[in-house]
Amino acid sequence: MTFRGVSPGDLGDAPSDAELIRAHVDGDPEAFAELVRRHRDRLWAVALRTVGDREEAADAVQDALLNAHRNAAKFRGEAAVTTWLHRIVVNACLDRLRRKQAHPTVPLPDGNRDDDRPTGPEPVAPVADQDTVLVVRDALAALPFEQRAAIVLVDVQGYGVAEAAEMLGVAEGTIKSRCARGRARMAMTLGYLRGNQNGDGTVPSRSDAASPLPTGVERREPR
Amino acid sequence: MTGTEFEWGEFEGVDIDLLADYVGGALDGTPDAERVAGLVATDETWRAAFEALEPGMIAVGAVLRELEPEPMPDDLAARLDTMFRVAGGATEPAPASGESGPVVAVPAKVVDLDKARRRRRWVAPVTVAAAAVAFAGFGVNAMLTSPKTADTAAGSVARENAPMSDQSTVGGDVLRSGTDYTSSTLAQATATKLRSAGSAEVPQVTSANELSADSLDRLNTPDAVDACIQEIARINGGGLISVEFMDYARFNGRPALIVRFVAADGTWVWAVGPECGTPGAGADELERVPVR
Known about the structure:
The structure holds 2 protein chains of 2 kinds. Chain A is mainly α.
């Protein structure tokens, strides 16, 4: 179910990502739009799961892609284009989350804005899985956002630890630690520890899920 | 917390983050890995915590992998596509000292979406259309900053819920003047309106009833305005545009949306018909004049 990058073999005669970037920098008016079309679903999925709000995710993706569009000439090709794009998008998401944390929004009179809940709820999965999806999504959204970003890239999107480390600009050990601590928190939140998991292997219902863990000062992550 | 046999406090004395690092392989090759392994082997609480946590973390990993991916919404995909196809048409030479290769000319001041959204709550519904434009990446600076549109929160909420067609009295830089423009008055009259200064030179104003009876209703929805502005930007070919002013009016007697905007190729006033932005109609362009 995970998204992965488009490998050269999948492209046939189509230009590679790097060729599209070069064409864009050289003035090809269609190249960047084609690059966006190629990767937009993956970038959207990362943004949506990381910020947990459709409007915020849309803004983050748009800002990030405009940034990439303007700064394409700075791309030197040390990383894959998809890694570079993900890095820009994830950074845009994290910047938004940090700003939101530093300057919480005062609820407006119409009551539509609540920073504890996504303002634009994601559509849910088919009814049979709806409860599980909601509970898991809530538990993911309750994680400290840097743990969430790492888990989104590695566990949800299926990127390797090394690739995720490059996307987030941190050491591989940091990614492993953020993922591990995030999974542990989610296991606690979901009541997923051994002896507490439902016999049929499902997660508890939304109302049964354990309370989120306290989000105090984090112990330093290993490098 | 309901019926959890193992709560966080159940493992008192266990550093759960450290144990999670151990389970997740983050300590591999470090002295901490041996230390935690020793604790799990010899300390009952650490062992209980390990035996609870490891399968729990594995289960969480499994359920995360099962989350279904969701493709980008069609409207966002379409907007990005249009934005970059339009923007891709305009490039500038690279600065003498700087990056190699040309820099693509997306305006530095793309509208602040957060700011636009905050404003939308206070000046709606005029800015409903404007916000849709903003979302597509087009600036709507003046449109959103007119003091005429400032109001109380209660008033704005009430108006936000009102249908767009009821807003014929709204001022600011989105007008419903009913003015009948001609080629020779487009640039001058929009400049006059933009300065909010009355003038005898402003063309004849049609009555509100007459305007409401015409066929500009289609352009009362944000999506329709959005599509129209995107078409104007595409056809103009000057990169992203920043809309300064819109007027639901007439041109040579025909219903027309008058759009004054700034782009990389200058300031323009376009008069477009009701079909602007519909498939096959392009911008339904009636006239365009540069502002000099």
